[in-house]
Specification:
Layout: E1 22-25, E2 39-42, E3 47-56, E4 59-69, E5 72-77, H1 83-95, H2 106-109, E6 111-118, E7 124-139, E8 152-158, E9 161-165
Antiparallel strand pairs: 1-6, 2-5, 3-4, 5-8, 6-7, 7-8, 7-9
Length: about 170
């Protein structure tokens, strides 16, 4: 018979992690850096495992195969002095200069990006380092004469591995 513990019913010290306490840190590239306060939305790393299958008589067995890390999505707010887009274009120019077509080395444009969850006292409670990140897609946002909301940049980063640190 299952055992019953009354302590399971009592309120324990529990503080949930919340969606609005986090920080995104970008690398400093040639003196340009996207400030953390311009980040509006982001997601934590996610991944999918491929699988292998073995068929034997009337059964199947499965196991984990290669892992694929999903792209990292974030939204930045553009500022009047164009801090975000200038830093982003500096980073993109390390991949390929649009005017000349020259391409950079992987070691030049792959950088580490960090995502930190914070507690109410701004202490880091979970830190993800996206190793070897680079901007795969950047959408500098639309403009509209009838809308007074801030411009946004949607950024997709590809990375090699996420490293979790507590």
């Amino acid at each position: 018979m299952p055992s019953f513990d009354v302590n399971d019913l009592l309120l324990q010290d529990y503080t949930p992690a919340v969606k609005n306490l986090w920080k995104l840190s970008f690398p400093n590239i040639a003196g340009q850096q996207i400030p953390a306060f311009l980040a509006k939305t982001a997601n934590r790393p996610s991944w999918t495992f491929d699988e292998w299958q073995i068929d034997y008589i009337s059964q199947r067995r499965f196991g984990a195969a290669k892992v694929t890390f999903d792209p990292f999505e974030c939204t930045l707010v553009e500022s009047i002095d164009a801090i975000a887009s200038k830093a982003l274009l500096t980073w993109v120019n390390l991949i390929q200069e649009f005017t000349t077509g020259l391409r950079g080395y992987v070691s030049m444009y792959k950088k580490d990006v960090t995502v930190e969850l914070l507690d109410g006292l701004k202490n880091s409670v979970q830190k993800w380092t996206l190793k070897g990140a680079w901007p795969q897609t950047a959408r500098l946002g639309d403009m509209d004469y009838t809308d007074g909301t801030p411009l946004e940049i949607t950024l997709t980063l590809r990375y090699d591995i996420p490293k979790l640190e507590y």
